[in-house]
């Protein structure tokens, strides 16, 4: 058997399970072995690690996906080392999983360290691999003996000490200044001219990728995430033409994206912590937004009449008429971003915007800063963003809050009706329109 013909893969899977006497559709991440020549994926028992440690404890698809992907990368690393003839991995080829030892994961961590991964990534690798080895040991699936130490946190959860750090015989290498490659900073804002630059970005979108221009409006004027945008359907829009615009965030993955084997990019994250009827978002509307809205709906209606849309209720569709996936949306946005940056050459903020890392998610930060311009407090920011705590909003506030102010903000948010998170008082929207009267579509 040629090991190079096989590869561990993580996949999102749906199955039916009886919960409290009722049949429920469950989504989970599973680990399988892909046979490259046939394309067949065989389920692997190590999936139980993901299920027991991250699925059964109420973890979301995203919280299962990260450890599953890491375990696959590690096991594929082991396969590569066996193929390379590395003597330390020889027993794995003949004995199998029970011959797995800490030295194998140590070598993986060290390799990734020397590849220049960030300390946060390596620490996460260490945490997942420690959990993985402890799971295997407790299940009597590996033979190596090693100490297991842990202590309970404030939630009563046991946090295990790394089984790789500080072990002399392993000599695991962790990031230092010499090994870590410099990573571009993430862009959270366009600066003082955020309103004008956002309008320019959207105008570029109308020229380069008009099919996502309305989605960009929702992200930069409403703070929606990409996964929340692509899940919207036509009934998600709650609008009074020229006056107010809101969107109802939904999870349409089963209806829209059943053709995809993995829907992480389509995850409407807000529904991880808010129920459907509570996930509504106000959009800061203006003349530009309404112009794009009209054109978008007109285009959809035209495609519908020509029977070119596979799912008539979808709000965003690709060139083949399917609901637009997160991957396609990202590709369209990158096309817009490239043209936008070219249009900025010579602008005083060009170097800062061009040299930082950003995707469409930057819209959430820019939306937040627009609200700060309106004088929103940290509590008002959290409410307007649809957050259930003030932690994310705090990252955008320059002032340092005292402990008393922090407690007051947290208590204020707790008292706020959860069903109104994401809904902005219309007087603030009116104020924003007055501050940004010139945001009109250029002819």
Automatic annotation (TrEMBL):
Keywords: DNA recombination. GO terms for molecular function: DNA binding. InterPro entries: DNA_brk_join_enz (IPR011010), Integrase-like_cat_sf (IPR013762). GO terms for biological process: DNA integration; DNA recombination. The keyword Transcription does not apply. It comes from the Bacteria. This is Tyr recombinase domain-containing protein. It comes from Peribacillus deserti. The lineage of its organism: Bacteria, Bacillati, Bacillota, Bacilli, Bacillales.
């Amino acid at each position: 058997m040629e090991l190079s013909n096989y590869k561990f893969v993580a996949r999102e899977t749906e199955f039916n399970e009886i919960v409290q006497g009722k049949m429920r559709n469950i989504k989970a991440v599973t680990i399988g072995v892909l046979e490259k020549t046939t394309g067949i994926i065989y389920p692997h028992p190590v999936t139980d690690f993901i299920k027991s440690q991250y699925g059964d404890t109420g973890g979301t698809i995203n919280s299962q996906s990260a450890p599953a992907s890491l375990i696959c990368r590690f096991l594929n690393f082991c396969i590569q080392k066996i193929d390379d003839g590395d003597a330390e991995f020889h027993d794995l080829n003949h004995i199998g999983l029970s011959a797995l030892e800490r030295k194998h994961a140590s070598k993986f961590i060290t390799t990734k360290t020397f590849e220049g991964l960030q300390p946060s990534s390596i620490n996460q690798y260490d945490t997942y691999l420690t959990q993985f080895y402890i799971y295997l040991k407790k299940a009597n699936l590996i033979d190596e003996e090693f100490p297991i130490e842990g202590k309970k946190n404030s939630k009563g959860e046991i946090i295990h000490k790394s089984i790789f750090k500080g072990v002399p015989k392993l000599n695991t290498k962790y990031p230092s200044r010499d090994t870590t490659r410099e990573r571009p900073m993430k862009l959270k804002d366009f600066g003082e001219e955020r309103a004008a630059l956002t309008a320019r970005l959207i105008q570029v979108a109308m020229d380069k990728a008009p099919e996502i221009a309305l989605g960009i409006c929702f992200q930069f004027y409403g703070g929606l995430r990409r996964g929340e945008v692509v899940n919207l359907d036509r009934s998600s829009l709650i609008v009074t033409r020229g006056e107010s615009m809101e969107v109802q965030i939904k999870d349409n993955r089963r209806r829209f994206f059943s053709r995809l084997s993995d829907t992480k990019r389509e995850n409407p994250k807000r529904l991880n912590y808010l129920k459907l009827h509570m996930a509504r978002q106000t959009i800061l509307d203006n003349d530009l937004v309404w112009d794009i809205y009209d054109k978008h709906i007109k285009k959809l209606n035209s495609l519908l009449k020509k029977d070119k849309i596979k799912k008539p209720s979808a709000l965003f569709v690709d060139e083949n008429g399917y609901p637009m996936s997160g991957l396609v949306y990202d590709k369209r946005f990158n096309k817009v971003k490239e043209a936008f940056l070219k249009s900025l050459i010579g602008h005083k903020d060009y170097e800062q915007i061009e040299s930082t890392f950003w995707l469409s998610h930057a819209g959430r930060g820019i939306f937040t800063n627009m609200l700060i311009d309106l004088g929103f407090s940290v509590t008002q920011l959290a409410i307007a963003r649809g957050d259930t705590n003030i932690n994310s909003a705090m990252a955008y506030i320059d002032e340092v809050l005292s402990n008393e102010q922090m407690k007051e903000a947290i208590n204020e948010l707790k008292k706020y009706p959860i069903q109104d998170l994401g809904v902005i008082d219309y007087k603030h929207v009116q104020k924003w329109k007055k501050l940004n009267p010139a945001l009109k579509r250029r002819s």
